[in-house]
Amino acid sequence: MSLEELKSKTKIKLTVMSISMLLPIIIVIVMGLGKWKIGESRAVFYYAPWVPYTVCGIFLGYLIYKNVKYICILKSDDYANKVLVSKNDERNKFIKLNAKSLSSKIFIYAVSVVAIFCAFIDYQYFYTCIVIFVGYLVIYYLVLLYYSKKF
Predict the structure, then answer these.
(1) What is the CA 138 to chain-centroid distance, rounded?
(2) Domain residues for 111?
(3) Are residues 5 and 58 in the same domain?
(4) What are the residues whose beta carbons fall under 8 Å from the beta carbon of 30, sequence distance 6 or more?
(5) Which DSSP symbol is given to 42?
(6) Other beta carbons within 10 Å of 24
(7) What does the pLDDT look like over 51-103, one tens digit per residue?
(8) Do 60 and 111 share a domain, yes or no?
(9) Beta strand spans in 27-126 (E)
């Protein structure tokens, strides 16, 4: 990847991330106006109404961080070169690949264990865990099939 390719991809990412910043802002405004009522007593928001605001704030903070990083790439050639070198580093790629692989396995095992415990608590939670588990496996095997045909 060259410096020009990095900057063109960064412009696209900056545009998408700037537009996506509207979502948490809209959610907070709608909830603040009271148009989004959460009256279900089993919902987390019923007992802790601050949770959606906190989640939206964390998400918005992450988007702002990424946008600042993208703006720095577009403004400074030195910083863009530093990012380009870190993106092309083979050691970092190897570490990220192994981390993604291990975290995926841990996620599958954790969902399986939670599903077993949820089978004793409530069938709705059990079915939710099973759907997540099966959905993840379907996506995994579709991606595996895609890459086996591609390479």
Answers:
(1) 19
(2) 89-151
(3) yes
(4) 36
(5) T
(6) 20
(7) 777 888 888 899 999 999 999 999 999 999 999 888 888 888 888 888 888 88
(8) no
(9) none
